Amino acid sequence: MKSTSRWLIPLLLALLLVVAVLWLLRSEFVADRVDDEVVPDSVPVAETDDAVFEEAPLAANVVTGLEIPWSIAFFQDGSFVFTERVGRLRYYDIDTGLAPEPLFDPEDFDHLGE
């Protein structure tokens, strides 16, 4: 038992010293982190005139009645394909609208979770 206490006491004292130093310096570590995470109140304005819009961009529903649209890919002609969470792959043509049948419709697809 005596040999154990011989190295245990210096070890505990060293550990106590390390904890005390970290406790005293904690405010400097926290202050540095908080300063790095400060979010500005405003966003700087662009210096060029390239980003000026005469009118606000238009947002509109193009396709309705879908079951949780999931991913989308556009083609050069303006048409696009997209997936629904249930697994269907659908096609939308800019001239004719939504194709009546899905390009792919898996049967017995388990769409739980992500």
- On the 0-100 scale, what is the average pLDDT? 77
**Topology, number of strands:** 4
Name the beta content range.
Answer: 15-25%
Radius of gyration: 31 Å
Shape: elongated
Number of structurally distinct domains? 2
The helix/strand class is alpha+beta
- Tell me the helix content: 25-40%
Describe the structure.
The chain is of the alpha+beta class and 114 residues long. It folds into two domains: 37 residues; 50 residues. Helices cover 31% and strands 16% of the residues. It contains one helix and four strands. The model has no long low-confidence stretch (mean pLDDT 77).
Topology:
Elements: H1 2-36, E1 69-74, E2 80-84, E3 89-93, E4 97-98
Antiparallel strand pairs: 1-2, 2-3, 3-4
Features:
single chain, 114 residues, alpha+beta, 2 domains, four-stranded antiparallel beta sheet, 1 helix, 4 strands
What's the short version?
The protein has one helix at about 1-35; strands at about 70-75, 80-85, 90-95, 95-100.
